[in-house]
Design a protein that fits this description.
This protein has 279 residues and is an alpha/beta fold. 28% of the residues lie in helices and 21% in strands. The radius of gyration is 22 Å and the shape is globular. Bound molecules: benzoic acid and fe (iii) ion.
């Protein structure tokens, strides 16, 4: 007779999509191994189901507790690690504050619009694995404001504050003026927050910019840039920090840039090359 695990795995052999069958059989295999190794009690499994039900209850179009769970368990980051094409810039978590309707702005846009925050000139290039410029790449950029909040969390902010899309130049170059981002906490008002509290885990993410880079013929890149020395950089509660994504915020005294953006010198300069991999 088959074991429970063998029978449950085999039950997916009939899947019309073979990949679905493979993934579900492996999921069953590892979940069963977890139950066996932890000697999970009935009460503990009931608590797990109650937790998942609470996550479902609080999930809406705007707020997905299961995405947050995936993030704080490191699963989002593991999927990034295993699905990442070799040789390009590392990917990192998308998070819940991306908006598909960001406005296309000219390359060089000034996103600061009189708000508080350390002026930061972010510039660089989009290149391929050989260092050749990728023409017509699009950057989708978003970050939090000087108070640590995204527009979705702060009704005082314009919904388009500190986010935009830009098209890079033919030589792959891009630039924009923004502010330094700040650390912030993941949402803690749901069951995931209660789990983090029970585990006495940090709820903080280090400061970061979010960037999605896309170009025809290349694998899209969802990534983040982290200021070197940011608080929580070694203890990101969603495990999104990668070595190559930590950037220096250098004091800059470029008179031409200062004049163009009407800046007091020195301002911050961040330079970064995004490397895309062909499809
Ligand atoms: C964020 O970076 O915005 C984020 C990522 C994961 C969970 C919560 C927030
Ligand atoms: Fe974020």
């Amino acid at each position: 007779m088959l074991t429970v695990t063998e029978a449950a795995m085999r039950s997916f052999a009939t899947a019309s999509d073979p990949r679905m069958g493979e993934v579900m059989a492996l999921l069953v295999k590892h979940l069963h191994a977890f139950v066996a190794e932890s000697k999970l009690t009935k009460e503990e499994w009931m608590r797990g189901l109650t937790f998942l039900t609470a996550a479902a209850d609080i999930t809406t179009e705007e707020r997905n507790e299961f995405s947050l769970l995936s993030d704080v368990l490191g699963i989002s980051s593991m999927v990034d690690v295993v699905s990442q094409p070799v040789g390009g810039t590392s990917s990192s978590v998308l998070g819940p504050f991306h908006n598909h309707d960001s406005q296309l702005q000219p390359n060089g846009v000034d996103l600061t619009k009189g708000q508080a925050g350390e002026r930061t000139w972010l510039h660089g290039r989009v290149v391929d694995k050989n260092g050749k410029p990728v023409a017509n790449a699009e950057l989708d950029f978003w970050q939090n404001a000087d108070n640590g909040l995204y527009p979705a969390q702060d009704s005082e902010q314009d919904p388009h504050n500190l986010r935009c899309k830009i098209h890079c130049e033919a030589d792959g170059s891009f630039e924009l003026l923004t502010i330094r981002p700040h650390p912030y906490t993941v949402p803690t008002d749901g069951p995931v927050g209660a789990m983090l509290a029970a585990a006495k885990r940090s709820i903080w993410r280090p400061a970061h910019y979010h960037v999605i880079v896309s170009a025809p013929g290349y694998v899209g890149l969802v990534t983040e840039l982290f200021p070197a020395g940011s608080a929580y950089i070694d203890n990101d509660t969603v495990f999104g920090v990668r070595e190559g994504l930590i950037v220096d915020f250098k004091p800059c005294q470029n008179a031409e840039v200062a004049k163009r953006y009407n800046l007091q010198e020195p301002f911050n300069e961040v330079q970064f090359e995004f490397c895309l991999v062909k499809n």
